Amino acid sequence: MQNNYTMISNIQNNSINFNTHNININHKNKEIIYIVGDNFNEFSQSNYVITLSKFIHYIKDINKKSNNNLYYLGQGLSKSEKEIIIKYSVDYQFPVYLPENRLASESKDTHKTKKENILITCPQKIHNDLYQSHLIIDDSCAEMSDHVTGRHIQGMVLIEAARQMMLAISEKFILDYNNKGNFYCIWSNIVTKFNHFLFPIDVIIKHYITQIERHNNGTIKLKSITKFIQNNKVCSDIEIEYKLFNKYIMKKIEEEIAEKNLQNFSYKIKEKFIQVSSIENMS
């Protein structure tokens, strides 16, 4: 089907492929309306934002006004929800724009089993120590599943996205072939700065490796800064110091520390019981 307005897209394997037919046809005078997930309901109080539920409810009215608006997919939408919007755009012939090159990072790189919990697109290497990605939030992700306050994106979403950048870049670019998928990442420090509110529309993520030390035992020590950028403003900086350890060596160390802590805690509990028993016997 061809028309002058709708960008017909196919979403397969989390990638979005565009047919940019007639993209330049007189969109200058159209208002941009962002479609976001229902969890961003407060953000949708703006005249330029609509939640997915409201969008579907008012689809026929939207069709009548389609000459005045161009719809853009914001944050909070799942792959299947994007497919629904695209189908409506074809059926009702109104313009929808989806940002290009938004292939979600892989589960094996982000260490996430559920697709909805992946918050970043596949990172790209820009130059030696700089990598870039985009924020992609699904309403069903773990960080959005309970409560959302205000119009902005919650800080814990950004911290998790920075963690996923750190893991994905380690898997794709830092570790050698034999160690991919076989390491533990241990944080030693994190410093988070929130400079401006970040809203659920396009967010660029830039990840800088500021220090890397490779040790003879295979351990890699790193420092990174992840910047979240919207409208050319750095809205948040998340600085992380961490180490990459061989998974099997670290697992043994972790087990030993866990057992020692359990033994120490058990000893303290026994002491409490002895104290209580002594007091009861005295009375």
How does this structure look, described?
By secondary structure, this protein is α/β, with parallel strands linked by helices. The protein has two domains: 9-97, Oxidized Rhodanese, domain 1 (3-Layer(aba) Sandwich), CATH 3.40.250; 107-251, Hotdog Thioesterase (Thiol Ester Dehydrase, Chain A), CATH 3.10.129.10. The chain has six helices and twelve strands. The protein has helices spanning 52-57, 59-64, 79-92, 107-110, 155-174, 247-282, and strands at residues 9-12, 15-18, 31-36, 49-51, 69-73, 96-97, 124-127, 130-134, 183-194, 204-214, 220-230, 233-246. A six-stranded antiparallel β-sheet has the order 7-8-10-11-12-9. Strands 4-3-5-6 form a four-stranded parallel β-sheet. It has a two-stranded antiparallel ribbon with strand order 1-2. It is globular. It starts with 8 loop residues before the first strand and ends with a helix. Residues 1-25 have low confidence and may be disordered.
